[in-house]
Each structure stands twice: as structure tokens, then as C-alpha cells.
Amino acid sequence: MSAKLESIWIKRAKGGPMDAVAQARAVGDRGLVGNADQGGHRQVTVIAREAIEAAGIELGLVVDPRFRRANLMVGGLDLRESRGRVLRIGGLRLEVRGETRPCELMDRALPGLRKALQPDWRGGVYGVVLEDGTIRVGDAACWDDLS
């Protein structure tokens, strides 16, 4: 199975709702157009569907991936220990700066979710946009070792 982008969410404001969209535009060294997080080192956050499913198994229920509050969800790609790597999703190149540590917002959405997302980088990764590009749900996702 090849890896692909399964969902895109734009956060209108810090702590605000996550809006699902079919496509998004990324701006180099800024982030996703319309997203609350612009600039800095945490411009875009990414989760793996398999990690959310593993957290759900641990909790004994199906976890809505929006509860994690990430911008992108990929399937078929392991995000563990990927700091410093470049992730390519469609027209997006994202330099992974680190692991996204689950916070108290996870437990507000679903009690126990924060703890279930802590092992094995289940909370996903964050990074910076390297250049302008457009992404669409269904785009291929891979590690760009030619960076």
C-alpha cells in the first residue's frame, strides 16, 4: 500500500474548531493559508492514521482524528523518529522539526486520549513548510531523501 494524504484540517484560531477541507495551499516558511499557526517552527502538524487507530484500540473505541487537532492525516507512513527528515505530500515539502506532544486539549476532547497518544510518536509531528505548494486529499506521501 502506498502512503497518501487522507485528511486536511484548517484551524481558524488557536484552540478553535478544525475545519475539514479537500485541498490547501502551503506558503514557504509560513504554513497553511487560513490556518492559525503561521511562521515559527510549528507551522504544520501531521498525524498518522495508524497511530490514531492504535490509540483507539488502547481506549477501546474509535477515535475521531480531529480530536488530535493536527492539520494533516496520512495513511501508510510511519512518522516515528523522523526529526530532520523532509516529508513530501503532493506539492508540499515539510521539514519535520519534532514530535508533537499531546496536550490537555486531547483529554478535553476525549478522556484518556492524551496518555494514549504519548507512546511511539502517536501524537504526530510538526514542521516548517520549505516552499509554496498545494495539497489535496488523496495526494501521495513519502519521505523526500533528496532534500
Your description of this structure?
- The chain is α+β, with helices and mostly antiparallel strands and 147 residues long.
- The protein has one domain (4-140): PK beta-barrel domain-like (M1 Pyruvate Kinase, Domain 3, Beta Barrel), CATH 2.40.33.
- It has helices at 49-59, 104-109, 113-116; strands at 4-11, 18-21, 23-27, 31-32, 44-48, 72-75, 86-89, 92-99, 125-129, 133-136, 141-143.
- It has an 8-stranded mixed beta sheet with strand order 2-1-6-5-9-8-7-11.
- Strand 7 and strand 8 form a beta hairpin.
- The two termini are 24 Å apart.
- The mean pLDDT is 93.
Count of beta strands: 11
How far is the N terminus from the C terminus? 24 Å
Number of helices, where a helix is a run of at least 4 consecutive DSSP H or I residues: 3
Class per helix and strand makeup:
alpha+beta
CATH secondary-structure class: Mainly Beta
Q: How many structural domains can be distinguished in the coordinates?
A: 1
| CATH architectural type | Beta Barrel
Q: Please indicate the percent range of residues in DSSP E strands (runs of 2 or more).
A: 35-45%
Radius of gyration, Cα only, in angstroms? 14 Å
Largest sheet composition: 8 strands, mixed
Cα shape: globular
Poorly predicted regions are none
> CATH homologous superfamily - what is it?
PK beta-barrel domain-like
The residue-averaged pLDDT reads 93
The neighbouring-strand order within the major sheet is 2-1-6-5-9-8-7-11
Helical content band? 10-25%
